Amino acid sequence: MAEDIRRTAVVIEDDGDIRSLVETVLRQAGFEVASTASGTEGVELVRANKPTIITLDIGLIDIDGLEVARRIRLFTDCYIVMLTAQSDEADLLFGLESGADDYVIKPFRPRELRARIEAMLRRPRISGAFDTDAAAPRVVPASVPEMQTAPPPTGATEPADDELTYSHNGLKLNADTRTVELDAVELDLTRTEFDLLQTILHSKRRVRSKADLVRKLRDDEYIVNDFVSESEERSIEVHLANLRRKLSDDPKHPRWIETVRGVGYRLPPSRS
User: Which domains does the chain possess?
Assistant: First the structure.
């Protein structure tokens, strides 16, 4: 397992001070670090170093970070954290859609960046999604029928006995194969979107606050007093907005993600 998670990172950042800060944070966390101010050179550094994690500035000197992320996603599924001074939801959605796993808004605290990275490394990955030695497009693994858990009765929110399969209002999630189907059509979700959707399905009508969901993604939801930043809570809002868009879920008449104003999110009632 230790061999599997090799501590290698690439920093793509055109601000010298921020680049130096991120390098220091990553080295203190035990990473070997390669860095550059150029998006084009950054893509080649990723190809050569096969990093576990990339931090990527959106506003680079040659090509923007969104295009860099798209190019990187053609040949690797390594974790990408975007660093951005923009907090507009539309801009953040573009970042996530281009292949980022998470983002951190500048200015940020070094401790927050390190915590976000360590949380990502603890979360499951989809194995075999890329061959890092070939510049092949991303392939989402197809579900294997004989290995799938039998679906629960229509409209049931309870998982199967092994707590791996959920079904609600035409949506089916299999935590074993990490697949989601809506009306028999498989959806392409990011790791974070999948984990958030699974948490909401599992929690059923129990309301989960943004802080709850942040801690769930970190794998430390039971450390009640652990600090959760505004940036992290904002990240949950953006990921859920992106997830809702992929589900075509109307926030005013939700089928899968209901907002409880001022409190958090929960699963809406089943529809017949």
Answer: 8-121 (3.40.50.2300), 149-266 (1.10.10.10)
